[in-house]
Amino acid sequence: MAKIYTKTGDKGDTGIGDGSRMRKDSLRVATIGEIDELSSLLGVCKAINERDFNDDSVASFLDDIQKDLFFLGADLTLFESKEDRVDEASAKKIETWIDAYAKELPTTKKFVLLGGNLLGAYLHLARTVCRRAERSLVTLDNEESVHENYLMYINRLSDLLFVMARYVNLKEGGKETVL
Q1: CA 72 to each of CA 9, 67, 125, 151: distance values in angstroms, whole numbers, following the listed order
Q2: Domains in the chain, please, with CATH?
Q3: Each residue of 62-103: pLDDT tens digit?
Q4: Fewest CB atoms within 10 A around its CB: which of 58, 131, 148, 153?
Q5: 3-state secondary structure the chain
Q6: pTM of the shown model
């Protein structure tokens, strides 16, 4: 079996998709890491969905989102946008999913306390990680231009995670606490 460790990052730098090396604490590497963290958290949500909730639409959407996040992170390591991977249509797809879930939810003009059942609570957590990744992506865009589709996508994604959390909480008979 091949060894997983290379020792090439022992001094604080890492390999980037274009073959160059970059400091691990650089804004670009940190942003890529936050997108990876979000994808990992969505993997936890998929596992909880499979074990506790078993909603095929939730599973399918989470799979699609993880693929999009993989491509977004990969494009950031290459310093280029692959128009056909995370594009305006990707954000529009998320808007369609938001609208579908929102139809199932009671409207509220109040603040929803985050939590609920286990899957709902983790989806709320994923939304906050998504917002952190979005802030880093915006900061990166201020320093080095990133494709506007990435900003649009990640912004829509946090909204989707919020309505998904509400959806799974209410489907499981959970009640929302609103302020």
Answers
A1: 23, 9, 20, 10
A2: 13-171 (1.20.1200.10)
A3: 999 999 999 999 999 987 766 678 999 999 999 999 999 999
A4: 148
A5: CCCCCCCCCCCCEEECCCCCEEECCCHHHHHHHHHHHHHHHHHHHHHHHHHHHCCHHHHHHHHHHHHHHHHHHHHHHHCCCCCCCCCHHHHHHHHHHHHHHHHCCCCCCCCECCCCCHHHHHHHHHHHHHHHHHHHHHHHHHHCCCCHHHHHHHHHHHHHHHHHHHHHHHHCCCCCCEC
A6: 0.92
